[in-house]
Design goal:
The structure holds two protein chains of two kinds.
Chain A: E1 8-9, E2 21-26, E3 31-37, E4 42-45, E5 47-49, E6 52-53, E7 56-57, E8 66-69, H1 75-92, E9 107-108, E10 114-115, H2 125-135, H3 150-165, H4 171-180, H5 188-195, H6 204-223
Antiparallel strand pairs in A: 1-8, 2-3, 2-8, 3-4, 4-7, 5-6, 9-10
Chain B: H1 6-17, H2 23-38, E1 42-46, H3 52-61, E2 66-70, H4 83-86, H5 89-100, H6 105-121, H7 125-134, H8 142-151, H9 160-173, H10 179-186
Helix pairs in contact in B: 1-2, 2-3, 5-6, 6-8, 7-9
Classes of the chains: A alpha+beta, B mainly alpha.
Amino acid sequence: MTPAAWPRTLRDTASGELPALAVLVLHPLDHCGVLYKAEDRHAVHPLAWHKRLSMDNVPSDRTGKYAWVAPSLPRERMLAVAAICRRVWRRNQQRGIPYGLRYDATTFHRTGEIRLGRDELGLTCATFVLALFRQGGVELLRLEEWPARPDDLDRQRELVARLRSDLTVPREHCDAIEREIPTLRYRPTEVAGACSSADLPCSFAEASRAAAPIVRTFEASLQA
Amino acid sequence: MDTLPPTTLVRTRKYLAKGHKNPLLQSLRVEALHALESGRRRVEFPLDPRVDREVEEVRREFPDVEFSVGSPASSPITSDQPPLERAPLEEFLERVYSLSQSDRESALLDLIYDTLDDLLLDEHFIPCDAALAQRDVQRLSAVATVGFLTITLTAKHLLPSRAALVGRVREILRASRSPAELDELLKGLA
């Protein structure tokens, strides 16, 4: 499939067409997860929130609010990352994974446990996807190219406010996350868009370009 | 068997903490330390002229540990390691070969990840390295090969046989894949 064909929506995808691995973006664009093949089915694996890791069946999509992009990788590499997803799920399904904004060196141990980078607190839904691929030896983004953007700052403040309103999230953790701001933000649409790149890790310019059709797809779905 | 006094373990831990450039040497030291800590005091390693010098060096450093040489055909996993690691290497590899011929790719990768991870987690680098060294690459599917290389990626500096394996895989898959496809398959895994 050529990059121009991305993204696909789940609404327009027959179950037999799903790839071994993909990044799934959920409208309204602020959330993403990994869609991958297990033994006899596909599953969706997002970091839903602080300490909340999900493993869901592929959702039914009547309105076209789920878009997916398969990485430009050999099938064997996709399966290897999918196996890491299963491992991370098994290891963390009870205790979850902490939420955090700053992302640079965080990865997963071979066991599936999270290994935080220095001065990093956890992952977002988007950096969770990046870390899963990283554990499979695949860097999706050229992180060093990502710029600071004013609207990302707004989004990060909004996230901290939502964390603070959730009484299950310890106050100290919210304070620590707030101290991370400002930090670079890797947007879910950029992470998904990067998958379509034939040259990973993907540059910021290319990821931004590839994110645009995802936004347009959702807009078209909403108007339909 | 009596365990060694804590002071000995502290000393060996300090020794290991220094870090060493030779991964095989480091692997042997980790094995020796693990043997001391578990009280079994015996480390078995595959017969390989490449390791002779390293073994002698570590033998001098760990006089309380017995180092015994196994044959290449025998399992390098010691009989007094925990049950999970006692499973014969050959049996594990046969299961991998068998699953490689089936379409149960998820089960194949889960087996490889779980087995090697248990070895790596306990820092049993020598048995893990032996699993890499003894594999019959031609009986493995490309999925299995990539799985082996992926799960051992973060420990590659401690697994001397891994680099040779990458070359061997490249050699075998050359018949069915173009150089560009091979590069793409192994990108980030070497």
